[in-house]
Amino acid sequence: MKVTIFPTEPFEVENGILTVVQTSSPKFYTDFIKGLSTENGLTISEDDEILNFASNVTYLKDVVTNPYVFDAFKSSLQNQVVDNLNENNRQELFRIDRRIKDIFLQSAYMEDVPLEINDEWNLKKMVKYAGIQMVSSTVETPYDIITSVLNLFKKFNPKKLIVLNDLFNYLNSSQISDLIQVIKALDLKVLILNFSDSFKKDDFKKCRNYYIDADLVRWTD
């Protein structure tokens, strides 16, 4: 897969190898983020074919400071909960649903107006009512947040390109090395945009590492 922002040459991204785009140019950094946010100005392609941006890219921004980072997976998690129910679970939930509706119906009879209760039984609505969701407060460190998000993508949406920015402010060299190995093990396509005054190389030896300097000249490690 290639990510292109004019007039810079394309950035190569592939499964299992972290792509890092570092820059000291405020203009390039701003234009790149604007392109990700508006889905304009960036082109995603594969085998010389332009791909639909929304279908192939997820821009997660700075996942560490985003309190809603797990919301995107809420529906998928709820669907999986339903899929994991066995027949006994389903029968018990049906009985509970009937009991709840009977209680409401008895209360409805007290009103001097024609009322009825929707007889439809919908497991997904029951899960939604239960409010099952990930608790972000249990994810303790920035590294834990990042790896949790990557694991969720592997589980629910492994084919998309994941783009994040400025995560290296939160990670030490050891954690960066571990993150590179996690991405390799999960076989995900990941690009991290990072604003930096210099071309940092030591932490990214096992990455595809690009640097755009203040004159918009592209360097590759």
UniProtKB/TrEMBL annotation:
InterPro entries: CRISPR-assoc_prot_Csn2-typ, Csn2_sf. It comes from Fructilactobacillus fructivorans. This is Type II-A CRISPR-associated protein Csn2. It holds the Pfam family Cas_Csn2.
